[in-house]
Amino acid sequence: MQSPAPTTADSPNKTTAPEPPASRSPEMSSELKMEERFETLDCPTHGPQRVRLFRLFADWAPARCPVCEAEQEQARSDEEAARQIRDTAEHRDRLIRKHLQHAAVPPRFEGKSFAAFTATDSSSAKALATCRSYADRFLDHLRTGTSLILCGNAGTGKTHLACAVADQVIRNHSKAAVYMTAGRAFRKVKDTYRKNSQVSEQDALSAFAAPDLLILDEIGVQYGSDAERNILFEIVNERYEQMKPTVLISNLALPALTEFAGERVIDRLKENGGKLIVFDWKSHRGAA
């Protein structure tokens, strides 16, 4: 008896032809086809314009004058640029007002300017020029941590020039400048020694490093104790390590100032081109 012929399922050599790919409907193909054409548009502003039109679906895009569209786009771009400038100017004004509010400059020295400083001889004229140059180039000094020391006779305009520097640092460079007497700075640190103090000594010292420029006035009026000398060093050193400029003001002559503040303080303030200005002319106070 003959065996029955194998079925398709039983034939190992039988191959199945792949199904043909599904074809897109004519409606789908026409929807994805983009057409284009050219028209002449009579713009009331720019006259006849040759316009390229496209159609992706059923309707043609409306004809618009390309010159008008370019002008409108430029107007939008100009308005955005103007808005950014206004926003930047407003932000700068707010920042300046904030810095002026927190500068703590005494009322007697508020708004002091270089123009209001009277140079009576070549030495005072040189001091004025040095402080003005320091203020003009403050952003460079901020990068290098370059400081100033103003020392010498009382009544010669040291605080005036230092506050003029601070005023320009705030108004021209939008940077923070803070004025403080050494006595007040020492008290801020000593207050942390109280048992119930909520602020640590390190917190107080770190706060001195916050402003871009710190002016410490009346160095040498205090007792000159080891504690005060150590606090002054810690304040200056905190700013020195953070590359923050400091202006030190004292009525002491340089040798006495060095003895009071310590050589480490003076050396740090003179590093990276720090300037020392000796005010050795007569007092302006009481002058006619």
TrEMBL record:
Question: From start to end residue, where is composition biased (Polar residues)?
Answer: 1-16
Give positions of region: Disordered: 1-33
Q: Which SUPFAM superfamilies match?
A: P-loop containing nucleoside triphosphate hydrolases (SSF52540)
Q: Which residues form the AAA+ ATPase domain?
A: 144-272
* Listed Pfam families: IstB_IS21
Q: Mind telling me which SMART domains this protein's record contains?
A: AAA
Output one GO MF annotation.
ATP binding
Give the keywords, sorted: ATP-binding, Nucleotide-binding
**Which protein, by its recorded name, is this?**
ATP-binding protein
